[in-house]
Amino acid sequence: MAMTDPIADYLTRIRNAMMAKHKYADIPASNVKRKISRILVEQGFVKRYIVIDDGKQGLIRIWLKYDKDNNPIINKLVRVSTPGRKVYADVRHLPRVMNNLGIAILTTPKGILTSREANRLNTGGEVLCYIW
């Protein structure tokens, strides 16, 4: 059966791995997921990620980050746009997550960006998810 929302699956796999206190999560790879993983590393929400070639689609292995009390750094992952309901934001109405303590990830004509990067590049787009 085909997956209808691979980004929601990506976020759910990370959420489940954090709740189970795993060191890493393995996720089927795609270009969008690679770019979201890059943003998560740049913003300090995860330690690192690698792409594992398995001869088919490939896997993204994401090492999760925990604080000194073994609580996950990521408190919440929220999917905003879904295949049945797209949510767009223009440059004047880009989302602020937790008063800029979190990030919003958007897909824009200039690539997959955080809302801060989209604001700096003066572009809007589809809001994929919120992370804080």
Question: Would you mind describing this structure in some detail?
Answer:
The protein has 132 residues and is an alpha+beta fold. It has two domains: 6-64, Ribosomal Protein S8, Chain: A, domain 1 (2-Layer Sandwich); 77-131, Dna Ligase, domain 1. Helices cover 24% and strands 30% of the residues. It has three helices and eight strands, in the order αβαββββββαβ. The chain has helices at 6-19, 31-42, 115-120, and strands spanning 24-28, 46-52, 59-64, 77-79, 88-89, 103-108, 111-114, 125-131. The strands form two sheets. Strands 4, 5, 6, 7 and 8 form a five-stranded antiparallel beta sheet that branches. The chain has a three-stranded antiparallel beta sheet with strand order 1-3-2, with helices on one face. A hairpin with a 6-residue loop joins β2 and β3 (59-64). The N and C termini lie far apart (32 Å). The model has no long low-confidence stretch (mean pLDDT 96).
